[in-house]
Amino acid sequence: MIEVKGLCKYFKNVKAVDNINFTVSEGEIVGLLGENGAGKTTTLRMIATMLKPTSGTALINGYDLLKEPDKVRSNIGILFGGEAGLYDRLTARENIKYFADLNNMNENESRENIDRLVKMLDMEEYVDRRVGKFSRGMKQKVAIARSIVHNPKVMLFDEPTLGLDVTSSKIVQDFILSCKNENKAIVFSSHSMQEVEKLCDRIVIIHKGKIIEDMRVDDFKGKYGEDFEKAFVGLVGDK
Amino acid sequence: MNMKAIMIVFKKELTDLLRDKKTVIVGILIPLIIFPIMFGLIGRSVEGNIKKTSENLKIAIQSQDKSQLAVFLKSQKNITVVDSNDIKKDVQEGKIYVGLIIPQNIEESIKDEKSAEIKIIYDDTSQNSNMACNIIKSLIEEYSKEIVKSRLMSKGIDYSILTPINIKEEIAAKDEGGFGKFMLSLLLPLMLIIYGMTGPMAAATDLGAGEKERGTLEPLLTTQAGRMSLLFGKLLSITVMGFMGTVSSIIGLMIGVKAGGSVFGGDMPLLLSPITVIMIGIFVLLIIMVFGALELSISIYARSFKEAQTYLSPLTIIGMAGAYGTYMIDVKNVSTILFNVPLANVSLIIKEFIIGIYNPLHIGMTFGWNLVYIFLAVLFARYMFSKEEVIFRA
Ligand SMILES: Nc1ncnc2c1ncn2[C@@H]1O[C@H](COP(=O)(O)OP(=O)(O)O)[C@@H](O)[C@H]1O
Ligand SMILES: [Mg+2]
Description:
Helix content of chain A is 40%, strand content 26%.
């Protein structure tokens, strides 16, 4: 579970994130929706302990990211950006294993987890080949397996389908839904209203670093009607 | 920072780097074979050329080619006298190596116990001509000594009257191979410093900027391994890569010197004892660590591979300056103050080791200072790794 409490991040005089608050429960997918430069990546980087907040904090599974960043890191998995970000000269298994090792897993645990993920994602055929020559979709699966190999309770996705083809996007979206089935707390950022509508339980709209709307997808439909794109443009355009 | 995480990072990075054909070829393989090939070719061709020229000296003799001197020269196995209408032109064009102009009256001059003047025409820009000139000169000298001998003999004087003092040369170096060591003391520090600097560069670029460019840095930063473990694992693997490159270039140099034959002093590398090699190795390692840490700091600041390469090139110039600055210094009477100067101190200490000086003060100063540099360089790398503005430089 994630509790974001008054998070702020200023870069010099740019208020990239300006006092935002929201919570994500277990088994819930929250869509962080905003235009380019709205502050989505910065928010997720702070939750992932990569950036220090200017003020405010967040609790991840009860651990404060300011006080216990190590504990927070052991509880989160991230999939950032469309590009998979793998080591081309390592095999798929080595790529995944590296992150299992860095997350303090012992040999048995990591082997079991990797085998399970390989089966789940249908990677048996190529898991021991170097990823350099993999297709987009194959790489995406490796990145997915890597993000979750250490059994995190919280998953952070930052525009994970950006620039992906339809097949790879589908792989990622299915993965997000499977995380929900495993009862993880999930934040998923996007600038596509459609994608958010399809996957999320709740919508948090962020604009110029501030939250301008936070409600259940069903309620959102009730309030703004079925045309999400129009509603979003209307909301953002106002400000 | 924890040891286990450092080792995980170290092992992964080393595997990754060693699987990179380009890094291995440029960083390890080429240094290993470039010197043998280069020196071998140079050595062979220089040696071959010397042999070719000295075995077949093409000269031309003008006017008195029936004189005793001409006959003496012609009787030399390695001299071929050819006809020439224009000696100067033929020398310039390389058709003959040297031309001799022997005066008409040479026989009379010798008989009358006077001095005769012989002109040698040669081309001082041509190696072959220079060499031929020297050989001819010494032959003429030999010939003229014979004349002196017979002149003295005819007067009943012993020839040794001309050499009241005989010079016998003896080299005052501690052991054999003084010249080889001297050459080595010029060459090796220069090379080692340049290698210590360029050796870790490819690895540092890949492990800093490369990580950003691939998009692997963000997931890496959210693992349990802290930033410092990542940093030290990376530094360790960069150091090892740099050291492997340096070692292979030294081995290459040694093979190269052998392949080059007598031109490079033949068995030069055998002049260094294992202890000397180890002592030199330790100091090279220190330099690699300093540069490795600096290069990684710069590399992590860069947004991309290309940018990293651009930022790293000025470092090369600094290294070169340090290495060349001490190139000609004679360590037999070097000022101790110089051992406070970065790079210069390592260059000098390596020179000392090569010629067999082990000065505890110099060793201590150099070692101490380099530990300080490593400490500062690592501190800088630490600072860079902990700065958000650096890691997430947009
Ligand atoms: N490292 C940084 N340094 C300075 N400004 C930054 C940095 N990262 C992001 N910003 C600024 O913060 C704002 C929010 O950026 P970001 O969180 O990346 O938005 P989003 O992910 O929603 O597109 C933007 O104005 C961006 O220019
Ligand atoms: Mg973003």
